[in-house]
């Protein structure tokens, strides 16, 4: 924050940022209910829909990541300008979360309706939806930190890189589907998730979040420029994909050491062992976090 600001202006800016952030988080539960076409109180308390609760929890964390990115960086020169900047980036971030959810539901997981499965209390579907939201929130947080301007060029940069990052998430999902099919004589990963294999969903969450950390790591290797954004976005995609492969390789080595003498495929895919799946997911997230901290 600018050292020339008066203490009262500084306090005012902090208060505005906090007010916008807390207000947005407080409305999230009802916003998700509106988008899902359900009453949140009924889903959470009457129907005890755990899948919907997990989805809302993921959405809350995702929104917190978006808002953390929106309030970061240098403050504007006045309270009104600061409020406008934070609100603009927060609104763009929330819209992108919704767009990312549609892409996840309609493109990435096109073989069944995640929205319908969450409504039917499919825990696996709830975990997948929450994982996607958190990954999106982390990606938006990364991009807003990376962009060095509060202008509309900065907003365009956020949107452009966001859609580039969707290719990374789509690639991870496609690869996990191919690996699952190879291990199970052509069976489909999405079908197993639709049937409620929560262990598979937890493992998928680990892979997806590690890819989001790969996108974050890429931001540390590419300097922001307000010109040549198209070429820069392709560079970001290439670097993010390379780092995703690197993280996957390192995490696989760590899994072999930590889960020595344990048949991970049998435990997770067949026995639906959420303990083993949680360890594997955490290893991927941990390696992703470490790599992104080193490079990002």
Explain what this protein looks like in three dimensions.
- The chain is mostly helical.
- It has one domain (7-295).
- Helix content is 80%, strand content 0%.
- It has twelve helices and no strands.
- It has helices at residues 7-36, 40-46, 50-70, 79-108, 114-119, 123-146, 152-183, 189-194, 198-219, 229-258, 264-270, 274-295.
- Helix 4 crosses helix 6 (123-146) and helix 10 packs across helix 12 (274-295).
- The longest helix is centred in the middle third of the chain and has 32 residues, at 152-183.
- The mean pLDDT is 85.
Query: Regions with pLDDT < 50 over 5+ consecutive residues?
Result: none
Could you give the count of β-strands?
A: 0
Q: Which geometry do the CA atoms define? A: globular
Coarse structural class: mainly alpha
Order of helices and strands: HHHHHHHHHHHH
**Biggest sheet: strands, sense, closure?**
none
Taking all Cα atoms into account, the compactness measure Rg is 20 Å
Number of helices: 12
Summarize the amount of helix as a percent range: over 70%
State the main characteristics.
mainly alpha, 296 residues
Task: Describe the secondary structure blueprint for this structure.
Blueprint: H1 7-36, H2 40-46, H3 50-70, H4 79-108, H5 114-119, H6 123-146, H7 152-183, H8 189-194, H9 198-219, H10 229-258, H11 264-270, H12 274-295
Quick synopsis:
With 296 residues, this protein is mostly helical. The protein has helices at residues 7-36, 40-46, 50-70, 79-108, 114-119, 123-146, 152-183, 189-194, 198-219, 229-258, 264-270, 274-295.
